[in-house]
Amino acid sequence: MSEKYAIGVDLGGTNLRVALVSESGKIIRKLKKRSSEQIVDALADSIVEIRHADRICGIGLGVAGLIDRKNSRVLASPNLPAIGGTDAVGELRRRLKMPVFIENDANAAALGERMIGAGRDFENFVLLTLGTGIGSGIIHRGRVLEVPAELGHMSINFEAEKCPCGNTGCLENYASARAMIARAVSMLEKGAESLLKECCKGSFYKLTPEDIYGAALDGDNLSREILKDAGRYLGVGLANIINVLGPEAIILAGGLTGAWNIYVQEAIREASRRAFKDLFDGVKIIPSSLEDNAGIIGAACLVFSNLPEPLPSKY
Amino acid sequence: MSEKYAIGVDLGGTNLRVALVSESGKIIRKLKKRSSEQIVDALADSIVEIRHADRICGIGLGVAGLIDRKNSRVLASPNLPAIGGTDAVGELRRRLKMPVFIENDANAAALGERMIGAGRDFENFVLLTLGTGIGSGIIHRGRVLEVPAELGHMSINFEAEKCPCGNTGCLENYASARAMIARAVSMLEKGAESLLKECCKGSFYKLTPEDIYGAALDGDNLSREILKDAGRYLGVGLANIINVLGPEAIILAGGLTGAWNIYVQEAIREASRRAFKDLFDGVKIIPSSLEDNAGIIGAACLVFSNLPEPLPSKY
What is the domain count for chain A? Predict the structure, then answer.
């Protein structure tokens, strides 16, 4: 049987990424644009631009935000307000005459890992995307668990500062890249000694997580401390996930996994101290294999996983 | 068609409760014993004692602890060490020649609420049992979500004292009856003024949550403060549950729901401040309708929910 194709769209934040993806997970073409206020127009244009092959079965949208699955709508998308409340799915269906599916971007990425990535061997796992923020998707019995799964906005410190989401002490405020940078800037402004001073030449706001990891590898104490502390907080989150969901695996994706040896190792150690032993012993904590492409491949997988089963060959 | 029966067993802690339950949720007979070291013997004896009706389809065990569903075993049961690691299910099957099913006790209670209690109208809900500890069960798409669901052992304060489970700052350590009593005792020992002094005549360790609620209703400030603070902590947990699982309902069971007007109301207020607004607006927070019997009825429901579908009537 000839291979099928779908268009995967990753609407994670400021960028709009669109790809033509084969059922085996190969990216045929890919494009990236800045997202705009006219988000549905931008989407439709990009899809038409990339729609090249025959046998395109549909379009999958992975959107950073809360999804109302029953009505295929985005309830709220803090980083992408233009799409909140719109009927993007209905619009695209009408304009492009194709099936359109929508999911939260991290849930879509989890589906991608499940179908053709690091989650292939697991029926039950959690994907965490560790970047500027912390996104998450849950796979249960081989399928996306249709819950909000906002694990980054689980409070791990009820008395802390407010998170923009409204909650207080969210995991994301302790273990994300944004949290690490904020802490580094604050320490540097207070005059802390660190190699980081040189690498950003005094303009602290240009610091990246890569700078911190690089300095840590060069023996910088402040950088090591920041990475280890963020790792410990991530470990608190992992232990909560393990105690509540008891997954077979936790798959970690996103830029911060580059600092695996310090940040993730510390998180695993902390989780091992905190989670129920029997549950911790049953979980593998491993890196994503689709990496940056998990979002678009996963979005395309929304289409493939919703295709009707092929008829048995005798028909 | 004549009604079916099952035996429900609730192994929640120091007591062993066994009931003969009809498919419509009626308790026909019920008995309560102290659990013993020879837990399987005690179970088998109680079941034989109560097995009265014909048409008993099987036995359901709800056990406070981590369940290995694949092997029908109890991995760990902190309050009931005698059952940890035993093959109670296999033993009972052999001795009593009947189907035997096992679940975590709070998951079983959630199933009971789903089949014939306050959860009948909800496909997706979380049950919390608020007593000495905090247990929890998750219903997803009308069925028990097969995860550990130890929401009481989710850390909401990573820097706090250690919980006996190994984690730190668990919800249970802030919002359970045990937590409230511990706080009351500590305050009274420090000489705090309170009506509670009289009601336990100086032996603080006999205090009950009912004493605290009673004193609060009589205008006692310390008691009100303890209930409200515990409620706020419960609200932190509710917000985490809402952000992660986005249920249609959270059903609250257990003795502490008697203090609904202070403790639960405060929890709902706190959750409304913290959770994503769209998700909070979609959740109903309501009391259990099976109350104390949720455990045994739910355990019996494990049997009913596993019965094969009846054949269509033409057969």
Answer: 2
* Residues 223-242 of chain B whose Cβ lies under 8 A from any Cβ of chain A: 233, 236, 239-240
Which sign, positive or negative, has the C-alpha torsion B113, B116, B118, B124? positive
Q: Are residue B242 and residue B107 in the same domain, yes or no?
A: no
CA-CA distance, B204 to B218, in Å (whole number)?
19
Domain that holds residue B10: 5-112+293-306
∠ CA A235-A237-A243, nearest 5°, is: 100
- Closest alpha carbon to B58 in B14, B31, B92, B107: B92
Which CATH number characterizes residue B269's domain?
3.30.420.40
Domain membership flag for residue A312: no
Task: With H, G, I as helix, E, B as strand and everything else as coil, classify residue B12.
Answer: coil
B281 and B135 within one domain: yes
Sign, CA dihedral A188-A193-A198-A199, equals: negative
pLDDT in tens, B264-292: 999 999 999 999 999 999 999 999 999 88
Q: Look at residue B311 and tell me if it is in a domain.
A: no
Band (pLDDT 50/70/90 cuts) for residue A315 is: very low
Q: Which two tokens stand for residue B43?
A: 């179970």
Structure tokens at A289: 């294999």
ipTM of the shown complex: 0.91
Is B157 in the same domain as B248? yes
**Mean pLDDT (whole number) for A249-274:** 96
| Token pair recorded at residue A33 | 């644009």
**Tokens 């997970």, residue located:** A25
Q: What are phi and psi of B314, to 5 degrees?
A: -70, -15
Question: For residue A261, which amino acid is it?
Answer: N
Whether A196 contacts A211, CB under 8 Å? yes
Same domain for B11 and B42: yes
Residues A138, A281, single domain; the answer is yes
Residue A146: how many CB atoms within 10 A of its CB? 18
Which tokens is B195 given?
Answer: 């009506």
Q: B311 is written with which tokens?
A: 């054949």
Determine the 3-state secondary structure of B51 from DSSP.
Answer: coil
A301 and A254 in a common domain: no
Residues 6+ apart with CB under 8 A from A186: none
- Is B24 inside a domain boundary? yes
Both A52 and A186 in one domain: the answer is no
User: Are B148 and B128 within one domain?
Assistant: yes
Q: State how far the Cα of B95 lies from the Cα of A75, in Å rounded to an integer.
A: 54
* Residue of B74, B104, B158, B236 to mutate when probing chain A, most A C-beta within 10 A: B158
pLDDT, mean over chain B: 91
How many Cβ atoms from other residues are within 10 Å of residue B186's Cβ? 11
Integer-rounded Cα Rg, in Å, for chain B is 20
Chain A contact for B265, CB < 8 A? no
Looking at the complex, does the CB of residue A151 fall below 8 Å from at least one CB of chain B? yes
Q: Which of B140, B145, B154 sits opposite A243 (nearest CB)?
A: B154
Helix (H) or strand (E) holding B31: strand B27-34
